[in-house]
Amino acid sequence: MQEELDLVIGSNRIISMDDKHNLHYTSAVINEIQRIANLIPINVLHTTSRNVNINGHHIRKGTMIIPQICAILYDEKVMR
Which tens digits make up the pLDDT trace of 14-69? Predict the structure, then answer.
């Protein structure tokens, strides 16, 4: 991971979200640590930006939602 960070970022600047698409190994490590340890089981609040229907449930634009990442991290159909 350090090797990738040194190669992509170097030592003369701070990492930013713009770098994420070039940090494949680092992203994979962070995702796997999150999956195994489930450090943040409840994600930050989000708000729907438009009206949506999910599995027959209507969710209005502006509804506050709290995604639960653990529902995906432990789903064997998603994480193999």
Answer: 999 999 999 999 999 988 887 788 776 667 889 999 999 999 999 999 999 988 77
Amino acid at 4: E
End-to-end, the C-alpha distance of the chain in Å comes to 22
- Rounded CA-CA distance 11/31 in Å is 24
CB-based contact 25:39 (threshold 8 Å) = no
Where exactly are the structural domains of the chain? 1-37, 41-80
Encoding tokens for residue 47?
């708000």
The span from the CA of 31 to the CA of 40, in Å, is 12
The DSSP bridge partners found for residue 65 are 46
Reported in sequence order, the residue ranges of the chain that DSSP labels E, i.e. its strands, are: 46-47, 52-54, 57-59, 64-65
pTM over 0.70: no
